[in-house]
Write a structure and sequence with these properties.
With 242 residues, the chain is an alpha/beta fold. The chain has 2 domains: 2-156, SPOUT methyltransferase, trefoil knot domain (Alpha/beta knot, 3-Layer(aba) Sandwich), CATH 3.40.1280; 171-241, Trp Operon Repressor, Chain A (Orthogonal Bundle). It is built from 8 helices and 9 strands. The protein has helices spanning 19-26, 63-73, 95-102, 119-125, 145-156, 204-222, 224-229, 237-241, and strands spanning 2-7, 31-36, 49-50, 60-61, 82-92, 106-110, 131-135, 189-190, 193-194. The strands form 3 sheets. A 5-stranded parallel sheet has the order 2-1-6-5-7. The longest helix has 19 residues, at 204-222. The two termini are 43 Å apart. The structure holds S-adenosylmethionine. Residues 86-89, 111-113, 115-116, 135-137, 139-144, 147 line the site of S-adenosylmethionine.
């Protein structure tokens, strides 16, 4: 997968050299480049923002540098990337969207700052590439950089070969519309607290049932919305009884 990120703070992306994303970059699974938006400015101050039309607080990112930046990644002769623009007004970022993005050959991220990017940049980009505004949640960040780091973590771990054990992907929260059951490791007793007996029993059938029951109970307590959205077909008789 190819990923390009445009930001006025390229330094934010230093962590992308670490851990499994760093390895995916080193072995070529992920071809990632970070670009400074200011390299597409032409004035001595390298200006990227201006006051909002209509008045109001804060500054808005000017369209010219963004337009030139996006032109550089979408030349007419090539298949354009999918443009992702972090925004608190975007569609919620979910595991389903992470799967969708993991299937794309080329993602381009545009990191807004201040009060965001002039709307015409997105409207113009939409005439030549797919554009999705994505929200991390119902709160407001300083800029899109942290949102891109989050989105990239979720997407990259879905790429074939990136996770050491691909089985993790099928056994985790949100893989089947449920939260994962609690996990334990050694020692069996710690500060007077025991690991549930069933997990030490070696009985795989009982363990699977216990994990399923815990996942259903946890989801019901913490995320009743997820339980309501579950496909009834995905429930077995013992789930319903529980
Ligand atoms: N004026 C904007 C609004 O009210 O919708 C908020 C701008 S915010 C201060 C600056 C930038 O941070 C946004 O352009 C976006 O890139 C990023 N951002 C802020 N909150 C976000 C969120 N919840 N999800 C994704 N990106 C966010």
């Amino acid at each position: 997968m190819r990923v390009d990120i445009v930001s006025i703070f390229p330094e934010y992306f230093a962590p992308l050299d670490l851990s499994l994303i760093g390895k995916a970059r080193a072995n070529g699974t992920l071809r990632l480049a970070v670009h400074d938006l200011r390299s597409w400015t032409h004035d001595v101050h390298r200006t990227v923002d201006d006051t909002p039309y209509g008045g109001g607080p804060g500054m808005v990112m000017r369209p010219e540098p963004w337009g030139e930046a996006l032109d550089a990644f979408a030349p007419a002769e090539l298949t354009p990337p999918r443009l992702l623009v972090p925004s608190p007004a975007g569609v919620p970022f979910t595991q389903a969207l992470a799967h969708e993005l993991a299937a794309e050959p080329h993602l381009l991220f545009a990191c807004g700052r201040y009060e965001g990017i002039d709307q015409r940049v997105l409207d113009h980009a939409a005439t030549r590439m797919p554009v999705t505004e994505v929200s991390l949640g119902d709160y407001v960040l300083f800029g899109g950089e942290v949102a891109v780091l989050v989105i990239l973590e979720a997407v990259t771990r879905l790429l074939p070969g990136v996770l050491g054990n691909a089985g993790s992907l099928t056994e985790e929260s949100h893989a089947h519309g449920l939260l994962e059951a609690p996990m334990y490791t050694k020692p069996a007793t710690w500060r007077g607290l025991d690991v549930p007996e069933v997990l030490r029993s070696g009985d795989h059938g009982r363990i699977a049932r216990w994990r399923r029951d815990e996942a259903l109970a946890r989801t019901g307590h913490r995320r009743p919305d997820m339980l309501t959205a579950l496909d009834p077909e995905s429930l077995d008789k013992r789930d319903v009884a529980a």
